[in-house]
Every structure is written in C-alpha cells, then in structure tokens.
Specification:
The protein has 352 residues and is an alpha/beta fold. Helix content is 28%, strand content 24%.
Length: 352
C-alpha cells in the first residue's frame, strides 16, 4: 500500500549536525532519541547515527523506549533519563541500559551488574537529587562499582540570559569534585550552542539541535540543517466554483473558479489543526495556501494554474522555504510539539 505521507530523514543533514555539535561542545554526544527521535523515527535515526564517531550513545525517556532501542541493537550505550519502577530495574539492567539514580533507595535497589548515572537537580526542579544529597548517593554508588556517569539539566540555557545556567553548572561541578572521575554531561542543545565547551564534561546531550533546530538568537552559532522533509500525496483534484465553500464550517468561500487538491495528511498525523487559515504547502515548487479547516486525515490546497495529478507529492515542510518552524507558528505552538506529534501513519524513510 502506498504511504499517504512520508517523513524523509536525511542522513547527510543528521551527520552534519552531529559533527557540528560535537565540535561546538568539544565532547562526544549522548544523542536523545526519546519520543520516537523527536518524531523522526527512532529506528531510522539510531541506524543512521550509530556509526557516527562522535556519538557515544543514545538517551530515552521511557523504559519501553529503552527496551525497544536495546532490541534494535545499535551497538551503543543507552541511558534512561527518567526513573524506572522497582519492577523495571533488573530487566533494564539485564539489557545493559544505564539507569538514572537520584536517591539512596534507588542506589540500593540496583543489581550488581547495573551501570548508573547519578541525576543531580541543580535548579530545574523536575527530577534528581539536590547537590548536597547527590554527593552521598554518588559515593555510595562508586563504592559498589556502579557509578558510570553523572548528569544535570539546564533550565534556561536556551535563553539570552545565561546567569542561571552558570549557577547550575557551578553546583554540578561541586558534586563532581566530590566523586571519582565519571562520564559527566550537562548541556542540552541550547547549552551546547550558548555555552560552548564546558570544563570536565565528557558528553553533551543536544536534543532538537541534533535534528536541525536552534532558538532564534542562537541560529548560526553552528551549521545546523533540518533533518526531516515531510511530504504528502495528492489524493483528489477537483474544481470549486465561485461561491462554494471548502471543508468543515464553510470557513473558506471561493471568490473565483478554483482548482483544489486534497492532500492526504491532517491533524491525526500531527499537523496542527490550529494552523487553519494560515497554513501553506509547496506543490511543484510553488507555495500554495491550505483552504478551509484542516481535517483529521486531509487538507485542501489551492492549486489553480498548476497541472497537478493524483499521486503527486506536496511538501508540507522541509529545510528550505517552508519549514516546521512555519507550521508551528501557524499552529501557535513550538517545533518540539509539532515534530513529536507526528503520527505513526507517517512513514519514516531514510535518504542520503
């Protein structure tokens, strides 16, 4: 069966981004592939990224993601970023998944073959042990030979004011100074771009930056290219006469005879429904408006003057003149939400 929509994942763009970010950080990368690799497809991304010399391993958020990634066997370490339940600890350790630890109870529950990364809360106030508690937990892990790494997470490294990020890093360094040498990592994508090399850090964890996106004030710091091009097929072409409306609610009314192409993608696939009235796509290289309300499975596009046929591709976003940043702005949201919301009906295809 032909795919109605495809996300083309560019190997050259991904590898270029990874190289640029590793150089900027002066560290190897612990590449986040949570949320289906930020919507890009965990299987495709890990297969493309695993051979990259700057990729140390992969990071995920959920135990199921860790188990699935271990089954893919990319040959790289896997770190679980959020705490597992007690019942999940041993099965994950048996798979070789690195486990986060933020309490004495979590440390004591680890089996002897586990490898732990101490999670330090330096100000994000989401997960982790406070610095004064983390030192004792880390030392306890080290005594058992289980401590492989330690990490924290910046709350404001993608903001213009970096004062709090520097405070967080100083707190993290205090913890590291009390521990034996470990794989230390702190910088997310914003941190890599805004702070550059951080002393003592073995790894960096650039998330959305690895897929080609940076905060507006950090664009150009490193040469990043969006990795995904999203395209959807034309499924129907028809003429709408003056005065007729298109889609639910009759929001758009034709002022002239209009050639309309129905395109096989909608909000069930992750395209923001709130982009109604603003969205555009590229067809035959031309930027054309989406007409009326975006539907669950489809959207209708003005292709007047073009020779469009059923089966043609419309580019929904890509690295060129129409980007996921545009789609997010039209939908009143951010790139993270649009990309991670891309549904399973969209086929992920690796390309050169």
């Amino acid at each position: 069966m032909l795919a109605r929509a495809q996300a083309l994942i560019s190997e050259s763009a991904l590898r270029g981004n990874l190289t640029a970010l590793a150089r900027r950080a002066e560290a190897r990368l612990l590449l986040p592939v949570k949320a289906n690799a930020y919507g890009h497809g965990m299987e495709a991304v890990t297969r493309l990224a695993a051979p990259h010399p700057d990729v140390w391993g992969f990071a995920v958020a959920m135990p199921r993601e860790a188990a699935a990634l271990a089954a893919l066997n990319p040959g790289k370490p896997i770190l679980l970023l959020t705490p597992p339940t007690p019942e999940e600890v041993r099965p994950l350790a048996d798979l070789g998944v690195r486990l986060p630890v933020a309490s004495v109870a979590e440390a004591d529950a680890l089996p002897p073959h586990a490898r732990a990364h101490l999670k330090v809360d330096t100000g994000m106030n989401r997960l982790g042990a406070r610095p004064e508690e983390a030192i004792g937990i880390g030392q306890r892990l080290a005594e058992r030979g289980l401590l492989e790494g330690a990490y924290t997470h910046f709350a404001t490294a993608d903001e213009p004011d970096l004062s709090f990020a520097h405070e967080q890093f100083a707190r993290f360094q205090t913890v590291l100074a009390a521990l034996p040498p470990v794989l230390a990592h702190a910088a997310n994508g914003g941190g890599v771009l805004s702070l550059g090399p951080l002393p003592g850090m073995s790894l960096a964890r650039p998330g959305l930056a690895a897929y080609g996106f940076a905060p507006s004030h950090l664009r150009g710091v490193a040469p990043l290219t969006p990795v995904m091009t999203l395209q959807a097929r034309v499924t129907h072409v028809h003429t709408v006469h003056p005065g007729e409306t298109v889609s639910y609610g009759g929001l758009w009314r034709a002022g002239r005879e209009t050639l309309v192409a129905t395109v096989g993608i909608g909000y069930a696939d992750g395209y923001p429904r709130n982009a109604t009235g603003s969205a555009h796509v590229l067809i035959q290289g031309e930027r054309r408006p989406v007409l009326g309300r975006i539907c669950m499975d489809q959207m209708m596009v003005d292709v007047t003057g073009l020779k469009v046929r059923v089966g043609d591709w419309a580019e929904v976003w890509g690295p060129g003149s129409l980007t996921v940043t545009d789609a997010a702005a039209w939908g009143g949201t951010i790139e993270y939400e649009v990309l991670t919301g891309l549904g399973a009906r969209v086929e992920r295809v690796a390309v050169g």
